[in-house]
Design brief:
3 domains; PGBD-like_sf; Peptidoglycan binding-like domain-containing protein; 24 strands; six-stranded antiparallel barrel; 6 helices
Length: 395
């Protein structure tokens, strides 16, 4: 009898447990129509808000370029009518040597060849009584060297000869002094070069003892002459010793970049950091190695690091700036209104409202904005996007 009651109690308990489980399961599966509709509705979009800032905005042009020494130039020496017999190269510089104005570039038959600044090449022997632009160019170079050539008037006079003597002696050479007899032999040749300009006896600057280059100092990039060979043709190739970086710009960028603009130069992987100045922007695309869709431009580097030559580096050119801190929002915060004007969407007390704005300088992902009549200040929240929405019901 006792056993029967125990069995009955267990059966009743099991029934209660099963009933409870069934009720709980039904509660999870059965929903009201209102609950079903609420779960099926799409989630409410959540705007992404960022604060309005006060900051300086700079528009920058980014490019890449390769560092190199300046434009190459071949050096040649003219033939002197004052010298007879074969001439041979007796001394040459080493590649990589840097030469300043007044330096001896090389020697020919033991005589020096001086490096001087000027755009006009030496083409004749210069001596007392000779006039011309080449004499004036020589006088200007001698004055830069502090040798006192007298008045810069294009006339080779006694003061010019004394300055030439000082130039030679300072380098350890004797100046060339020609007699009237020697000059008589070359005057017919001289007359064909410059009519009415006749040299007389005295200190001379032979045509083959000076080379003029437009930019100094220079760096020897290639030695083409050989010791013991004749000094004919291109003897040396030199480059401007300045380091420049050659780059290219799109057509739109080229309209913004101008000579004289500052350039930030860097390449983090090589540890390169430098500053430079835009030297030249080509007038049209497709020149100086750039393709037909890009415009060449070059930058002169102020203090080039030793690893810059031959390296590919990043060039950053600030082309426009607000100059001072202005009201700024992310570019993505500005949208276009139906009438074509610009606007931002501001969050106010949980609601969103549109404000008309006038965009200005943009850069680094921000744009300067002006709000007609005010209404926007630093710290205000503006919409830059919408949070991605999940599936209906959140599942």
């Amino acid at each position: 009898m006792t056993l029967t009651r125990r069995k009955l109690a267990m059966v009743v308990l099991a029934a209660v447990v099963v009933s409870s489980l069934a009720t709980a399961l039904a509660a999870t599966l059965i929903r009201s129509p209102a609950e079903v509709a609420a779960r099926a509705a799409p989630p409410v979009p959540t705007p992404i808000l960022v604060p309005v800032e006060q900051r300086v905005i700079t528009t920058k042009v980014l490019s890449r370029g390769t560092g190199r020494f300046g434009s190459p130039q071949e050096l040649t020496v003219s033939r002197s009518a004052l010298k007879t017999g074969p001439q041979v190269v007796t001394q040459l510089p080493e590649p990589g040597a840097e030469l300043a104005e007044g330096a001896v570039v090389m020697t020919v038959s033991g005589r020096p060849v001086f490096l001087l600044g000027g755009a006009q090449p030496a083409y004749r022997d210069l001596g007392p009584g000779v006039r011309g632009q080449d004499v004036e160019q020589l006088e200007i170079a001698l004055r830069r060297l502090g040798l006192g050539p007298g008045q810069v008037d294009g006339l080779y006079d006694q003061a010019t000869g004394q300055a030439i003597s000082a130039l030679f002696r300072r380098a350890g050479f004797a100046p060339m002094v020609a007699t009237d007899a020697q000059l008589d032999a070359v005057r017919p040749v001289e007359a064909t070069l410059v009519a009415g300009s006749r040299a007389s006896g005295g200190v001379q600057l032979a045509a083959d003892e000076a080379v003029f280059v437009p930019t100094l100092p220079v760096r020897v990039s290639e030695v083409k002459a050989t010791l013991g060979g004749e000094p004919t043709g291109a003897l040396l190739t030199v480059t401007d010793s300045r380091v420049t970086v050659d780059g290219s710009l799109t057509l739109d960028e080229a309209r913004l970049v101008r000579p004289g603009m500052e350039v930030a130069i860097d390449e983090p992987t090589l540890g390169i950091t430098a500053r430079g100045t835009v030297e030249r922007v080509a007038e049209r695309p497709g020149t100086d190695g750039a393709d037909g869709f890009h415009v060449f431009f070059s930058t002169v580097v102020a203090e080039p690091p030793p690893t810059l030559v031959g390296a590919s580096v990043r060039l950053t050119v600030p082309v426009r700036s607000t100059g001072e801190a202005v009201l700024a929002v992310p570019v993505s915060a500005v949208s276009m209104a139906p009438d074509g004007s610009s606007r931002v969407q501001r969050a106010v007390n949980g609601a969103l409202e549109f404000l008309p704005v006038e965009p200005g300088v943009s850069g680094d992902g921000f744009v300067a904005v002006t709000v007609p009549g005010g209404g926007l200040k630093p710290g205000d929240q503006v919409v830059v996007g919408i949070e991605p929405m999940g599936p209906p019901g959140g599942r």
